[in-house]
Amino acid sequence: MNRFALVAVAAVFIFGAAASASTGMEDLMTVKTQLDKFSPVTIKVDSKLLDARQKKMVKELVAAADYIDKIFLMQVYENNYEIKKKLEASKGKKSALLEYFKINYGPFDRLDHDKPFVEGVGFKPLGANFYPSDMTKDEFEKWLKKHPKDRPAFESNFTVIKRDDKRLIAVPYSVEYKDFLEPAADHLRKAAKYADNATLKKYLLSRADSFLSNDYYQSDVDWVRMKDHDIEVVIGPYEVYEDSLFGYKAAFEAFVTRVDPKESERLAKVVAYMGDLEKNLPIDDRYKGLGRNLESPIIVAQEIYTAGDTRAGVQTLAFNLPNDERVRKEEGSKKVMLKNVQTAKFNKVLIPIAKKVLDPKDVANVDYEAFFAHTLLHEVSHGIGPGEIVKNGRKTTVNKELKELYSVIEEAKADVLGAYNNVYLTKKGLYEKNFIDVIWPTYLAGMFRSVRFGINEAHGGANAIQFSYLLDKGAVKYNEKTGLFSIDETKIDSAVRSLASELLMIEARGDYESAKKFVAKYRKMPESMKNAISRLDSVPVDIKPTYAIK
User: Fold this and answer.
1) Same domain, yes or no: 129 and 117
2) 147 within a domain of the structure (yes/no)
3) What is the DSSP string of 243-289?
4) DSSP secondary-structure letter at 348?
5) How far is CA 407 from the centre of its chain?
6) Which of the 8 DSSP states describes residue 3?
7) Is residue 324 in a domain?
8) Cα–Cα–Cα angle for 428, 430, 433, nearest 5°?
C-alpha cells in the first residue's frame, strides 16, 4: 500500500532519444540488479499425474488464463500496452527493461515502493487504472455525497470508475473488459467439456457466465463446493491490493493446479478445529465471527500455471478464497496450498536468509514443516475473526471501513494468527510438543523474507508491522555485536497474543483512524532490520517462474 500523500496524476510515457544516455544506463544497471533478486525456477507437474483428457482441459484453462493476464496488465496502468509495445520494439540493452516490466506487470518496481524504472514514466496512480488517473479521494467521496444512489456501484469490487463529460460513472467489468472476458468464457466452456467431475464442470460453466453477467456470487459458491476433483482452478477478479486508493477494486488472476489428494487428506484434520480457532481468538466473544460458516476445505496442490495479479512480482504460496463475505458466511472458504512453490521458496530463499540474520541456535530450528504449517494457518486465519460488522447501526464489512489500509491490516492479522494458531494446535495435540521449538524461529525468518517485497506492499508492510511490534515488546532480540536476531521465548507468546488482539479489534470496530495510527507507528523498518537486510544482497528475494506447460 502506498502511504505517500500523492495526487494520482496521469503518467505520460516518453520513450526515445530525448532521454539522457547517462540516466538510461543508471536505470538499466538498477534494473539488472533488481532482476538478479528473482531466482529462475521452472514450475512443472509430473506428466503422469495428468491423463489425456486432463491435459486437454488444462490447455483450455491456460488459454482462458492468458486472457485474464491481459486484463490485469490493463488494470495496473493505463499506458501499459503502449509501453510494452515500445519496449518490445527496442533492441539489445533494453531487453532487461522488458524482462523486468513483465515481472512487475508494468513500469513500476514492486520491490521498491512502485518506483518507476522506465524513463519518462511518473508516479503510479494510487488507484492503478481502476479510476481516472487525475481523480482524488476527495472528488470521489464528494460525488457520492451528492449522488448516494451511486454508492453500491462505485464501491463495487467489479466496476471501474470513469469520466463521462463532467460526471463520474461506474462501468461493470463485463463491459470494460468484454473483449477479453468473452473469449476467456469460451475457453472455460470448452474446458468444462473435458471435466468428468460434476462439481468442477459446474464451476467452470458458472464462472464463464459470471464473466458476462458481472455477478460472481454463484460461481464463488460453486467453487467452494467443488469436491473430489483432480484439477483445482480459480479464475476471476479477487484481491484488492492493486487498488491503493480505496482498496475496493478487485484484480483479475488465475491459478491452474493439480490436486495432491494424499497431502490434502493429511491436512484436512485442521478443518475440525476451525470452530475452536474462532473461539480461541484473543478478543471478546461479541466480536468473533461465531455465526459464520466455518467449513473450510483445504487443498494441497501442485501449481501448473498462473496469470494476472498472482503472477506479478512476488509469487503466491497459498490462497484463501473467495473474499465475498456473503459466501464466507454461508459456505465458508477454501484454502489452496501450492506445495511445489512453497518448496522452491523454502530452499532458495528462506534457508539462505535465516543463515544470515538469525542466531545459530534459531537457524537450526528453521523447519520446512513449520513454514508449510504457518502458510496454512495464515490462510485459515483469513477465514476467521471479524468480516461482516455493524458500525453506527449499519451493516458493513471490515474491507469497506478500513479502505486502503484493509489489505495490510488483514495480512498482518492473518500472519500473526498463523503463528498464534499453530501454537494453539500444538498444545491441542495436533502436532508433536517440540513443534513449538520450530514455529517461532521459522516465523521470524519469514518476516525477513517478506519485508524484502517492499513495506508499502501489503505483505511486506504486514511483516514490518509484526517485526517492529515484537521488537518493541522485547519478544524479538537483537545482538548488536553479531548483528543477529533471536526469539525471547519468555515474551513471544504474550507479545503475539497482544498484537493479534490489537489487529482484530481494529477490524471488529471498522476503525479506520486507529488503523491509520497503528500502521503509521509500526509499518517501518528499524535500523537493526535494515542492517540485516543489507547483508542479503546475494540471496534472491523471490522466484521467477517459467511454466513447463507453455
Assistant:
1) no
2) yes
3) -TTTS-PPPEEEEEEEE-HHHHHHHGGGGGGHHHHHHTSSS-GGGS-
4) I
5) 9
6) -
7) no
8) 75
Asked if residue 402 is part of any domain, the answer here is yes
Distance separating alpha carbons of residues 413 and 502, to the nearest angstrom: 9
pTM metric for this prediction: 0.83
**Are 254 and 278 in a shared domain?**
no
Number of C-beta neighbours around residue 253 at 10 A: 26
Domain boundaries, position 140: 40-78+125-259+292-317
Q: Verify that 223 and 278 share a domain, yes or no.
A: no
475 and 516 assigned to the same domain? yes
Residues 490 and 355 occupy one common structural domain: yes
If asked whether residues 147 and 231 sit together in one domain, one would say: yes
Cell of 48: 503422469
Per-residue pLDDT of the chain (550 residues; tens, 9 = 90+): 332 233 333 333 333 333 333 334 457 888 999 999 999 999 999 888 899 999 999 999 999 999 999 999 999 999 999 999 999 998 777 899 999 999 999 999 999 989 999 999 999 999 999 999 999 999 999 999 999 999 999 999 999 999 999 999 999 999 999 999 999 999 999 999 999 999 999 999 999 999 999 999 999 999 999 999 999 999 999 999 999 999 999 999 999 999 998 888 888 888 889 899 999 999 999 999 777 666 778 899 999 999 999 999 999 999 999 999 999 989 989 999 999 999 999 999 999 999 999 999 999 999 999 999 999 999 999 989 998 899 999 999 999 999 999 999 999 999 999 999 999 999 999 999 999 999 999 999 999 999 998 898 899 999 999 999 999 999 999 999 999 999 999 999 999 999 999 999 999 999 999 999 999 999 999 999 999 999 999 999 999 999 999 8
CA distances from 418 to 189, 346, 443, 485, 495 (A): 37, 17, 9, 21, 14
CATH number at residue 74: 3.30.540.30
Query: If residue 204 lies in a helix (H) or strand (E), which one and from where to where?
Result: helix 198-213
With contact defined as beta carbons under 8 Å apart, do 463 and 450 qualify?
A: yes
Cross-strand bridge partners of residue 484 = 479
Whether 365 maps to a domain, the answer reads yes
Domain count, the chain: 3
Instruction: Work out whether strand 159-164 and strand 318-321 pair parallel, antiparallel, or are unpaired.
Output: unpaired
- Judge if 404 and 467 occupy the same domain: yes
- Report phi then psi at 501, rounded to 5: -65, -45
